[in-house]
Amino acid sequence: MKRLSQFAVAACLLLGSAVAWAANDTPVGTWRQIDDVTGKPKSIIQITENNGKLEGKVMQVLLSDDGPHPICRKCEGERKDQPVEGMVIMWGVSKDDDVWDGGKILDPKNGKVYSVKLSLTDSGQKLDVHGYIGISLLGRSQVWERMQ
Q1: Listed residue (127, 147, 131, 128) closest to 139, CA to CA
Q2: Which of 79, 141, 145 is CA-nearest to residue 110?
Q3: 49: β partners
Q4: Angle CA 142–129–105, to nearest 5
Q5: CA distance to 2, 10, 11, 19, per residue, from 7 (Å)
Q6: Does the pLDDT of residue 48 top 80, yes or no?
Q7: What is the pLDDT of residues 59-96, one digit of tens each?
């Protein structure tokens, strides 16, 4: 009986570590967006997957030049003059080997939409978010930190 309980504990530990590892091999989760200029946390982003495509939604704005609840004044279309909190700012991103790309990301500060490429680093605890126009060698990157 003692061996059975030891086996059960070991199996639970292995299963738990496998689940934790699997959770960190995808961008799906909650992320703290770090401003690439100031190095300070800017917002909380929730990345979800729907039919194999990732999308990112702003859950909370932490740092803004426009006050605590900014709106997207420079956005076009349905996002124009809408609150940034609750806004989908990344969409259509799909897995391509060890990166995720093929989608778009919106910068609510200037209202521009860029192509986006995502890469996990630091054992899945950081996400390199690279927005660009044209070729991915040009553009700018931010590092987002996974929230537990």
Answers
A1: 131
A2: 79
A3: 54
A4: 110
A5: 9, 5, 6, 18
A6: yes
A7: 999 988 888 889 999 999 999 999 999 999 999 999 98
